[in-house]
Specification:
Ribosomal Protein L30, Chain: A; about 60 residues; alpha+beta
Length: about 60
């Protein structure tokens, strides 16, 4: 089984750049407090790194 991240959106996108807003949307978030399981790929790691100040990230096995 591939490694995954449990990611939760903890901050609003108000005041963020358009690129950061698109990244939030591409990860599948629509509301504050939503959680998603994200596969550990280089593309997803880059997205998480880009908006890390808005997320809570935990590693799942």
């Amino acid at each position: 089984m591939a490694k995954q991240f449990r990611v939760r959106l903890k901050r609003s996108t108000i005041g963020c750049t358009e690129s950061q807003k698109e990244t939030v949307r591409c990860l599948g978030f629509r509301k504050i407090g939503q959680e998603r399981l994200v596969n550990d790929t280089p593309a997803n790691r880059g997205q998480i790194f880009k908006i890390q100040h808005m997320l809570d990230v935990k590693v799942e096995n």
